[in-house]
Amino acid sequence: MRLEQAAAIASHLLVVPQSASTNAELRERASDAQTWPHLSALVTGTQTAGRGRLDRDWVTPPGSALAVSVLLRELPDDMQARGWIPLAAGVAMTDAVAAQLPGHEVGLKWPNDVLVDGRKICGILAEATADAVIVGSGVNTTMSTDQLPVPTATSFAALGASVDVDRLLADYLTRLGELIAALAGRSDAAASDLLADTVARCVTIGQRVRVMLPGGAELHGTAVGIDEHGRLMVDDGAGQHPISAGDVVHVRPA
């Protein structure tokens, strides 16, 4: 995997032929801050034991997806502002994917799944360490339609597109670096424009949604916005409810 453009953006870039989990592997290496500074990345085309949100497994056929984990050390001082990091990664990847899929609707499903024409092409998982945040992303690249894990998934190949993985990763790292730098400088998503960028790309807003909340309860309503804390605002007819954690499903019209 030749990643010359991405290597010019990342502070340190390591490409491995296979990884059980790029997030777990980067976490093990992250204690060496000199070798692995801010905006370092670990990349593979074959991940055998990856995890998604809500601890779901994320395993793909060898060579059919890009798994990348990025180490972020230059973080906002405000811990609440750090909650925006997964959304920043979602915005960055949405822009990177959209650049290679003209003519398609590419958007962000709250909090950080990237959808193309309503189907998931990328998932993101952010995990904190003692002094950093690791952001892992999995992008379906050459996965055939038959290999897609669920009917609501898609890939560049399934869309009839050939992806330039080097450009995709370089675009993602560039945008992610910009967004995190702005957020760290302001410690405020509104002042750094991250809130506006997220709202502009979020295809969940305006959708009828079903939210599976921690503890098993469900909330049904319309997603009406994102607040200053990055929470999804859902109106169930009786009022607006801020959602900070939960599994959101876009409810398609019957």
Q: What key phrases describe this protein's structure?
A:
single chain; 254 residues; alpha+beta; SH3 type barrels; 2 domains; 5-stranded antiparallel sheet
Can you walk me through this structure?
Helix 4 packs antiparallel against helix 5 and helix 4 (85-98) crosses helix 6 (194-201). The longest helix is centred in the last third of the chain and has 22 residues, at 165-186. The chain has two domains: 4-200, BirA Bifunctional Protein, domain 2 (2-Layer Sandwich); 204-250, SH3 type barrels (Roll), CATH 2.30.30. The model has no long low-confidence stretch (mean pLDDT 93). The protein has a seven-stranded mixed sheet, sandwiched between helices. A hairpin with a 4-residue loop joins strand 12 and strand 13 (240-243). The radius of gyration is 17 Å and the shape is globular. With 254 residues, the protein is of the alpha+beta class. It contains six helices and 14 strands.
Task: Please give a quick description of this structure.
24% of the residues lie in helices and 28% in strands.
Secondary-structure map:
Elements lengths: L3 H6 L3 E3 L6 H8 L10 E5 L5 E2 L5 E2 L6 E8 L6 H4 L2 H14 L7 E4 L3 E4 L2 E10 L4 E8 L24 H22 L7 H8 L6 E5 L5 E9 L5 E4 L4 E4 L3 E4 L4
Parallel strand pairs: 1-2
Antiparallel strand pairs: 2-5, 3-4, 5-9, 6-7, 7-8, 8-9, 10-11, 10-14, 11-12, 12-13
Helix pairs in contact: 4-5, 4-6
**Uncertain stretches:** none
Task: List the secondary-structure elements in sequence, H or E.
Answer: HEHEEEEHHEEEEHHEEEEE
Average pLDDT over all residues: 93
- Measured between the Cα atoms of the first and last residue, the distance is 44 Å
Strand residue content: 25-35%
